[in-house]
Amino acid sequence: MAKNLEILCPCCESTLVVDPVSGEVLLHKAKPAGPGKTFEAMVSQLAASKSEMEKKFDRNIESQKDRGRILEERFREALERADKDDKPPVNPFDLD
After folding, report:
1. CA distances from 25 to 2, 18, 21, 42 (A)
2. How far, in Å, CA of 80 to CA of 96, rounded?
C-alpha cells in the first residue's frame, strides 16, 4: 500500500495530505497564525509609513518643479540653435 504524501504549499505554507493513487487531497492543515501585533504597534507602523510616503511625495513634487524649469531651458537652447542654423536640411532625393 502506498503511503500518503505530505506536501507543503509554497504559497500559503499550509500542509496538504494527498493520496498518491487517486491524487485526491485527503487533509488540509492551515498554517497556524503567529503571534499578532499589538494595536499600538500597528498604529505606530502606520504613522511611520504615512510620514515616509509624505516625504516621498514632497520630493517628487520638488523634482517635477525642477524638471519643468530644466525642460524649458533646454527648449530655449534648442530654439536658439535652430535660429542660428539657417541651412536647410538635406533632402534625401537630392543625393541621387
Report:
1. 15, 4, 11, 37
2. 32
Q: Say whether 1 sits in a helix, a strand or coil.
A: coil
The model carries a pTM of: 0.38
**Amino acid identity for residue 9 in this structure:** C
And the C-alpha cell for 27?
487533509
Residue found by looking up cell 485527503 in the block: 26
CB of 25 within 8 A of CB of 18?
yes
Asked if 17 and 25 count as a contact pair (C-beta separation under 8 A), the reply is yes
The C-alpha cell at 51 is 510620514
SS3 content of the chain, % helix, strand, coil (to 5): 50, 15, 35
| N residues, the chain | 96
Nearest-angstrom CA–CA distance, 87 and 96:
20
Q: What is the pLDDT of residues 14-31, one digit of tens each?
A: 999 998 888 888 898 888
